[in-house]
Amino acid sequence: MEMKTIGVLTSGGDAPGMNAAVRAVVRTAIFKGIRVVGIRRGYNGLIDGDIFEMNLRSVSDIIHRGGTVLYTARSPEFKTEEGMQKAVDTCHKEGIDGIVVIGGDGSYRGARDLSLRGIPCVGLPGTIDNDISSTDYTIGFDTAMNTAMEMVDRLRDTTQSHERCSVVEVMGRRAGYLALQTGVAVGATSILVPEVPYDIDRDIVARMRKTQMSGKKHFIVVVAEGVGGVQELAKEIEARTGIESRATILGHVQRGGSPTVRDRVMASQMGHQAVELLSQGIGNRVVCFRGDKILNKDIYEALAEQKEFDFNLYRIAHEISI
Ligand code: ADP
Ligand code: F6P
To answer: What is the DSSP letter of 80?
Structure first.
């Protein structure tokens, strides 16, 4: 089918680099002579008809900004038959022939459902969690890792001065990718992730005692939010070791900030590929990063894939934090 107009939206939790992706989508489309409209607040914008014309200058000055200029939302209404029908009606009314959806697995499911109803969609992986099964990398992950690392470096200063233990929660929803990378980067004594069951005595207390014997006086325990319970854990560590412990939840600061080079470049390439696909009338695809290549695959296949946790890196972290 001929693509005269494509829409672009961001959905789910925002991620640094989403703006760079929006910019690439808009510029590539215009380069190819395709009209582009922005859809505000994820799928809510499709339901409410919150649509606006975009031009080359609509995306000036955003490549370096965190967040998303299109705003984002989680839209429970979109999951209902009525909501979905309203979204399809808006596409017909606005003459939207295809949509680039930037978000996570949930947003991909929405893109799949719209594609099924005759609106070809291409998904771009945007989330700080890196928890999308079909891709090794998601836009926002690098920036979030660097932010979390910098925050924990700051914590280390005060942890070291007081000879304490800091128990730090990093985001990641139900996955431990962000926690693992951050934990390795900050040299954490222990890293707790949902993918690996833990035992407080074996995996934290014994490790602290052992490193204490070789002269270590402060400790950092990185905990994925999918494990949670950092306040209780800090109390428990203090009770079992006698070492004063504090809990810190990094929270939403991890979602903000200017995107790193990696996120900007990845988002630019992925946005470009999404429009290449749509311009050829190809929808129901997601863009992914595998090995060192940007590829695309069928949304159904993408959603059916299982993502592997990097147990090897986890083991390395364990072996070198002694
Ligand atoms: P993410 O895209 O980051 O995984 P969510 O899971 O919150 O974030 O999904 C974002 C939005 O995608 C939801 O608010 C909803 O509108 C839509 N969505 C999620 N799951 C489905 C589904 N199973 N079917 C249709 N739409 C969905
Ligand atoms: O998916 C990104 C993420 O930041 C997760 O790491 C976290 O679990 C969730 O979103 C938080 O969502 P909210 O912004 O709705 O609090």
So the answer is: S
Ligand nearest to the CA of 128: 2
User: Which are the catalytic amino acids?
Assistant: 129
pLDDT tens-digit readout, 238-266: 999 999 999 999 999 999 999 999 999 99
Does the predicted model carry a pTM greater than 0.90?
yes
- Using a 6 Å cutoff on CB, does residue 128 contact ligand 2? yes
| Beta bridge mates, 220 | 166
Cβ–Cβ contacts within 10 Å for residue 122, how many? 30
Tally of residues, the chain:
322
- Which protein residue's CA is at the shortest distance from atom 6 of ligand 1? 106
Reported as half-sphere exposure (CB side, CA atoms, 13 A), residue 175 has a value of: 20
DSSP three-state, residue 76: helix
What is the DSSP annotation of 248-285?
Answer: EE-GGGGG-SPPPHHHHHHHHHHHHHHHHHHHTT--SE
Rounded to whole angstroms, how far apart are CA atoms 310 and 147? Answer: 21
Report the amino acid identity of residue 84: M
Nearest protein CA to atom 8 of ligand 1, as residue:
12
- Rounded to the nearest 5 degrees, what angle is found at the Cα of 247, between the Cα atoms of 244 and 253? 145
35 residue type, one letter: R
